[in-house]
Design goal:
- This protein is an all-alpha fold.
- It has one domain.
- The protein is built from 6 helices and no strands.
- The radius of gyration is 19 Å and the shape is globular.
- Keywords: Signal.
- This is DUF4148 domain-containing protein.
Length: 196
């Protein structure tokens, strides 16, 4: 009887730990969605210029690379969670600082509309990753791999926006990267891998 009670207690503890790790990963992905949404809102309102949005996308790329590295083994330690939280807090502060620095831009310019569309696509991709984690079709390790792909997309957006103007050719290159990432997400969610 005591053995069964101990086994039950250990099983319950393992379930709580697994849920905690999944929740931590889901929380970091949800913060990605929230920060991308804030960038999009800043572009729509004109509070963020295209160049500022590009700087923020460079920072988001760094966060995605960090997530990828930290999730390589499928787990987030307390130290790894703290590093991610600190990087995301810095990004949140940078978004606020840039939104309130007095620089404004036309939200209706071609470049602003292109950047806004790219950021909206990032939101959609991060939501798909988050949904895959929640429904078990993505393991934390797979989320880490997909975050590396998101980092590449964000980097392309940052490069395209570095001078405050996104040319048609740059937009085509970004769209190509977005399509590749979309296909990766679809493949990982439907390959039968799932939660680890």
């Amino acid at each position: 009887m005591k053995l069964n009670a101990r086994l039950l207690a250990v099983s319950a503890l393992m379930a709580v730990c697994t849920a905690s790790f999944a929740q931590s990963t889901a929380t970091t992905v949800q913060r990605d969605v929230n920060q991308q949404r804030r960038i999009e809102d800043g572009l729509k309102s004109g509070e963020l210029t295209v160049q500022e949005a590009g700087k923020l996308e460079r920072e988001e790329s760094h966060i995605d690379k960090l997530q990828s590295r930290e999730l390589k083994d499928g787990h987030l330690s307390d130290a790894e969670r703290a590093r991610l939280r600190a990087a995301q807090n810095r990004a949140r502060a940078d978004i606020t600082r840039l939104e309130n620095n007095g620089q404004v831009s036309s939200p209706n310019s071609r470049s602003a509309k292109r950047m806004e569309a790219d950021v909206q696509h990032n939101i959609n991709q991060q939501r798909r990753i988050e949904a895959g984690l929640q429904d078990g079709s993505l393991s934390r390790r797979e989320v880490g791999q997909l975050e590396r792909g998101q980092a590449a997309v964000n980097h392309k957006e940052a490069v395209a926006a570095h001078n405050g103007h996104i040319a048609r050719g740059e937009q085509i290159a970004v769209n190509r990267a977005e399509r590749r990432q979309s296909a990766r997400i679809h493949h990982e969610r439907t390959d039968g891998g799932g939660a680890n």
